[in-house]
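Support reply, case 0932

Customer input (verbatim):
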Amino acid sequence: MKIILLYGPGEVGKRNEALRVRKQFSPEDITHLDLKGGLKELELSLVSPSLFESGPRLIVAENTPETSDLQKLNGGGNLTLLLLSGSLKAGSLLLESTKKLGGKITLFEGEKEVTAFPFLDALIEKRSQAFVELQKLLAGYGGMYVLSMIYYLLRRNLLPLPASIFMQQKVKSQKREYQLTDWVGMYRRVLETEFNIKSGFMTEELGLIFLTEKFLAVKNWE
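Our regenerated output:
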């Protein structure tokens, strides 16, 4: 089992690196987990691989607790475990067990980055500032990274609330403006945009400008 640990406050760098790793695997061989509640879901995934997986497996685990002992996990040689976590204390069990297993560890410092969060907040709150922030992200990271962060935005509003009180308040405030059918419609539109870009029907910049216009203009996504 190959282990990659990406941690720290730098969400832009973490998401960019996670996207680079994901591109090395077929979509049907990737499993996404949220480990906010502990390692049990990961342990179950390791012993119960999907029937549709045909090649090397990738498990992407969000919110990996710093108390996680990876030495207790049993994974096959054809598996890559990509762990994402926030700031970690030196000597935390997660860091130490990753080192002992020979995993790759990368720290991402937030203050050195152009952050995607002003764009995401402006997008979901229907503020025109989203266009300005979009251009910054396109210049620094490219369209596929922007798409991955929009997917993160949608997941953030559908999954259980994050641990941070500040983020809980922000997500609750944003979710009040939408119904479940709206989130489904947004997902559909983002998937269509990704398909059009990857199929060559439009450039990354044009596709994301159209998508941003849609987010700001549509009142009902049904």
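We compared this against your earlier run and they match. Two observations from our side: The chain is about 50% helix and 15% strand. The chain has two domains: 2-112, 117-217. Please reopen the case if you see a mismatch on your end.
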